[in-house]
Design brief:
Strand order of the largest sheet of chain B: 8-11-10-5-6-7-9
Order of helices and strands of chain A: HHHHHH
Largest sheet of chain A: none
Radius of gyration of chain B: 17 Å
Helix content of chain B: 10-25%
Order of helices and strands of chain B: HHEHEEEHEEEEEEE
Radius of gyration of chain A: 20 Å
CATH topology of chain B: SH3 type barrels
Largest sheet of chain B: 7 strands, antiparallel
Oligomer: heterodimer
Strand content of chain B: 35-45%
Shape of chain A: globular
Number of domains of chain B: 1
Helix content of chain A: 55-70%
Structural class of chain A: mainly alpha
Largest interface: A-B, 42 and 44 residues
Number of helices of chain A: 6
CATH class of chain B: Mainly Beta
Number of strands of chain A: 0
Strand content of chain A: under 5%
Distance between the termini of chain B: 35 Å
Shape of chain B: globular
């Protein structure tokens, strides 16, 4: 995010969304009507105040909030406007990733789901390479392609992903007796 | 701690994961076999049931919320977000968004069933809906507010909650409805 109008050709990640667009995203987050079970997303998204987002917040942000805002902001290409064209390309690439996430985290899967997932993730990776030629991919990008096989081998991800364990570990970490070696009375 | 882990009111994706794993056999909404606070059914709801060729009950419970497979559905006056659901009354039919206005628990053939009195959103009056370009997201524009007409749906008709964001698109007021179903077809 930056305060002034970003360069249309900038390839630095984090310098795409303008301050006005960020305000629109904040407004959409505040106006969104959601059920009580859905993980809340910070209304001041992007501010250091809320700290790091958890994995589930990223998923909800990506599959629910961002599509609503980004499609509205970026889908219309203004003729002769280089930034507008680039934002439309960014939108398609971003939504390929979000589509892949939605399909991969579905409670039902099939070879057709896996194929669609692979198609979206490949479009996303190609898009990143085209839009940000200097960007260096990470091992997780490679891993994401292998999720295709895991969907075929193991079925829907919620039956084998480790988020429930992560959650339990988080609860154990917050237990008041955690990390207090030698300060508690022994009962043995 | 275990209760925290499985508490259906947790604001987390885990609840929908657990519901899908643990709620497979818990799909009957008639766990309580008697009406707890029977109240006479208002005339306009009776008229609605008759118009839909349903037998109007004399009395019903009117809970403000019900929990099915770990997910709580609420009347709009209590919690707007919990009242927004996608329903499909035809098997395999395209789901449409509704807002729950009342919840009835009635006795039908010696079994207690839950009925939802809902208001339906109508198609948005826009010539081009950009959200339908990305079908995996299951997002679509609908009218800004649901229409006044009431209709009745059952627990089996409900597919999922949806998130709703009011927007203005090319000068028209609309609501972007995005399905929160974890089952993508």
């Amino acid at each position: 995010m930056q305060q002034e109008q970003p360069d249309a050709k900038t390839s630095d990640h984090g310098r795409v969304i303008t301050a006005d667009e960020m305000r629109d995203i904040h407004t959409d987050i505040q106006c969104m009507i959601t059920p009580s079970w859905m993980t809340p997303v910070p209304a001041d998204l992007g501010s250091p105040r809320h700290g790091k987002l958890k994995a589930d917040q990223w998923r909800v942000l990506g599959t629910t909030y961002l599509p609503v805002s980004l499609i509205r902001l970026w889908v219309q290409v203004k003729q002769g406007d280089e930034r507008s064209q680039r934002c439309a390309d960014l939108l398609d690439t971003t939504l390929s990733l979000l589509s892949a996430i939605t399909i991969a985290s579905s409670h039902v899967t099939s070879p057709a789901h896996a194929d669609r997932y692979l198609q979206h993730i490949q479009v996303y990776l190609d898009g990143v390479r085209r839009l940000f030629p200097d960007y260096e991919f990470h091992p997780n990008h490679h891993m994401a392609i292998h999720l295709y096989e895991y969907l075929l081998f193991y079925g829907p991800v919620h039956s084998w992903w480790t988020f429930p364990f992560e959650r339990l570990i988080g609860m154990l970490e917050r237990v008041s007796t955690n990390n207090r070696f030698g300060t508690l009375r022994s009962f043995f | 701690m275990f209760h925290k882990l499985i508490n259906p009111q947790l604001r987390n994706t885990l609840i929908t994961d657990i519901a899908s794993l643990a709620g497979q056999q818990d799909n009957d909404d008639s766990t309580v076999e008697i009406l707890t606070r029977p109240t006479p059914v208002p005339a306009h709801i009776n008229a609605l049931l008759i118009s839909l060729h349903m037998h109007p009950p004399r009395q019903a419970d009117f809970p403000s919320s019900v929990t099915v497979k770990g997910i709580t559905y609420t009347v709009a006056s209590k919690h707007l977000g919990n009242s927004c659901v996608l329903v499909s009354t035809n098997k395999g039919g395209r789901p449409y968004p509704v807002q729950i206005q009342s919840i009835l628990r009635v006795v039908i053939q010696d079994t207690i069933k839950t009925l939802f009195i809902v208001q339906r959103y109508t198609e948005a009056s826009v010539s081009f809906d950009p959200y339908t370009r990305y079908p995996a997201l299951c997002a679509k524009m609908w009218s800004r507010h649901p229409c006044e007409d009431l209709t009745v749906v059952t627990v089996d008709d409900i597919q999922a909650h949806f998130a709703a964001c009011p927007i203005t698109w090319r000068g028209s007021d609309a609501t972007v409805v995005i399905s929160l179903s974890r089952e993508i077809n």
